[in-house]
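Standup notes
- HV: blocked on the assembly model, inputs below
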Amino acid sequence: MTNATRSMRPETAAQLADLFRWATSEHSPLEIRGGGTKAEIGQPGRQGAVVDMRAFADVIDYDPGELVMTIGAGARLADVEKLLRDNGQMLAFDPIDHGPLFGKPAGEATIGGVIAANIAGSRRLSAGCARDHMLGFEGVSGRGELFKAGGRVVKNVTGYDLARLMVGSWGRLVALTTVSLKVLPRPETEASVLIEGLSDADAVSLMNRAMGWPLEVAAAAHLPAGLAASATGTILRIEGFGPSVATRAAEVAGRCGGKTQMIEAGQSAALWQAIRDVAPLPQGDTLWRVTLPGVSGSAIGAALEGSDARHYYDWAGGLVWVSAPGGVDVRSVAEQAGGQAVLVRATETVRASISSFHPERLGVAALRNRVKAGFDPAGILDPYRFGPAGGGNAH
Amino acid sequence: MTLCMPTPDERTISRRAEIVAALRRIVPGEGVIDHEDGRRGYESDGFSAYAQLPLVVVLPETTQQVSEILAYCHAEGIRVVPRGAGTSLSGGALPLADGIVLGLSKMSNVLDIDYANRVAVVQPGVTNLGITRAVEGEGFYYAPDPSSQIACSVGGNIAENSGGVHCLKYGMTTNNVLGLEIVLIDGEVIRLGGKQLDSSDQDLLSLIVGSEGLLGVVTEVTVRLLPTPQMARAVLIGFPTVEGAGLCVGSIIRAGIIPAGLEMMDRTTTHAAEDYLKAGYPLDVEALLIVEVDGIPAECDHLVQLISAIALEKGAVTIRESQSEEERLMFWAGRKAAFPALGRIAADFYCVDGTIPRRELPNVLRGIELLSKKHGLPVANVFHAGDGNLHPMVLYDANKPGELETAETLGADILKLCVEVGGVLTGEHGVGVEKRDLMPEMFSEVDLAHQQRVKCAFDPESLLNPGKVFPQLHRCAELGRMHVHKGQVPFPELPRF
């Protein structure tokens, strides 16, 4: 199905509000979209007309000394990151551009889409997720009303934290027009310590011990042998100022014991970009994202042994990417290990037969629906992505 | 300020004996406090200018009891004011004449310390510092450190999204909580998040954090633990002008340094602290900075050098780098004693809490000086300079007629100024009753209605902590109304449901 023929591109918040009020009166569903890089996540064949948010792309306020950026939600992630990089800063939650995961070009993802889906990369382990860096927003709710919440300063407890509620809402509460984010300095340099030959269980155990050392390990991943990466094994990332990185990397290597290898800055950065972007797994196969308490991570690898599924660990085992061409029931595996599984990439047939999002506990789902009704009483905002229209356990 | 609270329900008040008996059936023994002298201990919190004797106080010991209490209150239409340790500076736990105070102080066990996953599961009555005390032997700590951390409870920290001096680097409460068990007003027990980093319901979890007891009662908390840094070093920097100090802070951050703590004191506070404690502060400066870094020794030494070089370039007249742990603690001793020190130079003080974009600091301090002159009360300033959180202390004497009111008006004017320059009404103390009536300075009616509809999703009869945060109580039915007009079609050819 192509929604391209039914796409609207409002230029102002007032137009957006008009559109929502009209959609309400006509019972016409809408799907809020940025670059469309995550459009293939969730139920296929959705009927909502697409609202293209990319006209809202202005930098409203960015003063590096304040550590805050206020920008149009439709701004391209690549542009946001370039602006930050030019000022020696970054989005510390390290978001993934989902385009290439679906065979689309890189650079089309928008910051609003990243926020709406709560996307974070490998640094999430130490620096927090998108939600941790969300400070405030302006947007139009499903009621067709422009409003704001949160603020443009890093420390604020005025009123309910609606800003963080928006993160992970998939555009089902509010179409964000402007977001304010906490930004952080880009580390001066980095290095990685590589330990080869560990089993999944030993690797996960080591990574979690390492996160408890007072050495500020920024990220920890384990790539089992045979994956497509410049290095496989257990990888610990150390970032910061030069003298500190050199000392910490040496100390981390020493504490790991056995045979370790040091990966210098340039190669380390490239390796971590690949890990973040799920490059080590085959492109095109069914892809699951499993999150669970870190030390339980290796239970996923153990459960998948003998199947055609391939996997690797990020977040010290708290995130497991699983490529499952043969249709292994990864959700059950995740549940048995105390985690959740999201179906990131699959054929329309697969996505039509199972919920892409992890089902929520009944009480939570009911509460979520009541909260949503406050923002979108007519249910015009993307009623289909999480299941058939009006689906009870919608996210 | 005359505080307008929801009109007490005389019918509830007249049923007091019956309500006490019902609560005793749920919480036997001493967990129900109905004598006046017992209730007196709960009549106010850290915002002590206001007091109200509660109808009755109940101190449950289990989630099940909390659930039964709320279910009973919900069925009977009785208002409930949740309370942790009662250290709120904004009146978040101020009782209601017709409401029960639901105190969580007896639920104070550490339930599970999971070092492998670096999380702890605790009951809400555990103190903030109690978590660190429970795990420090293994080299871990709980990062948020509000200045009341010896006394304040984790449950209260969740309600207020508490901060502290280390927020810039380590985040507020919301950034350090992974899981919650909450009880809704109808008694339903809900679990959100857990020990994992990302679970799908953590958006609702972040809505609970900072909701000031209006959405649910927290009965269990899962927090992140961090490894204790190997060491910390601090630099004490004095500037002849506030502008210089402000520029120095901006330059440190632009240089890529995120200090663990970055505090500023003005001349009045510096002098009061020095008189009180002899911390060795320079007295010839207008602004004093304490910049603290933590980590491995090589990192601390490197950053201390960088910070001192920046300070020198920005015109600092005093730069002292801590050479020992004793010296570092001495730098902090004066700052930490700022409250009692100011207490010696004024009969009373009123601590204001706004956040501003840091670049506005010189403007705002000038504005505060003008307001101080206008209202005739002195103001001393301490500032979490790293994150822009300003704490002006209005010095007054409550025994002089009208001075409390003047202090409050001055405080409100300062907060309005914070909002005017792009800041917010509260950085870490919460809205409570204190800043409730200022909410329209920052938010439009439409903004506030979107927040209040969240309240309706959790507590449609507004029984949980009513009269806090929002200047007006709206009926949920009225908030939910939506006017839809069949109007112009702005975009043709849309599909229908």
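- HV (later): unblocked. Chain A touches chain B through 109 residues (CB under 8 Å). The CA atoms of residues 47 and 224 of chain A lie 41 Å apart.
- Next: hand off to the docking folks.
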